[in-house]
Amino acid sequence: MTPVICMKKLIIVTVFFINTIVFGQTNDLPNREPFTLKLAVDDTIFYQAEIKSAPYVLPENHIQIYPGEKILVEVELIENEIVSMKPVKENLNPEKTITITFTQQVDEKKHKFMMSAVYNPFGMQLEYQVNMYLMKYKKWAPTHVLPIKAKSSVSESWPNILTFLDLYGWQFK
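RESULT FIELD:
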C-alpha cells in the first residue's frame, strides 16, 4: 500500500471516529439503571428492594421517582401545552428542564421523613398531582401538592416511608 492510500484510509477512519463521538452521543436518558433501593426504618431495620431498569417517563407523562433520585425532564410546549416530556442526562436546556428530586431524611439511622422538590423553569405556574406508595401499607395513596410558581421550586414532605412517587397530570396555568 502506498503512503497516500494509507493516509487516505487513516483520514477516513479518523473522520468516522470523530463523527461517532460528536454526533452519536445523545443527552436522552429514557431508562434508569437497575439499583438496590435501601431505606432506613429504624436503627436496626432497613427496607431493601431491587429496582429493575425502567423508563423514567411512562405513558401520559407519568414520572416515577425513587428515594435518592434526581431526574431532569426536558419539556416541549406548543401554545403552553405539554407535547413531550423527555428525561435527560444533563441540563443542557435549563429554560425548559424541570428538576425533580426525592430523598429520605434520616437521623442516626432512623427514618425522619421523605421529601420531594420540583423546580419549574417556565414563566407560568406548573401544576401536577402525586400518588405515593406507602411501604408500611403496601398500597398507593394520593397526596396533595402545591402548584409551583413560575421560575421557582416547591418542596413537599411526608412522615411515612415512601418507596416511590408517581407524578402526573402536568399542566401550565
